[in-house]
Amino acid sequence: MITCVFKKGDEYTLLKVIDNQVRSIIQGTQTFRLASAISVFAVYLYLSSDLYGILKMRQVKKAKETSITLADDDVFNGLVIGKTKEVLFTLKGDKVTAMPLSSLKSFDVN
What we know:
Shape: rod-shaped
Structural class: alpha+beta
Number of strands: 5
Strand content: 25-35%
Distance between the termini: 102 Å
Number of domains: 2
């Protein structure tokens, strides 16, 4: 009788310990999956933005040079790399210049 009580107690303890170990393994796996997903997403964002930058730079380098006449009749030659609602971005050599559109008189693509 005492042996049977010890055996049942041992089985109960064994089941509880194994159940807790399995839970901790599953929780560790879920944490690892979440960390892996976040890491993969961060690497994807970095690589895709890097690739976009490379492709955009190639496109800018192939563009034709533009002559821009400012409001004070100064002429600026360079590559147009982008434009927002109020600003025109140009590239001349290694220097990027931002010009307000209100200060432009005209620009011609050569």
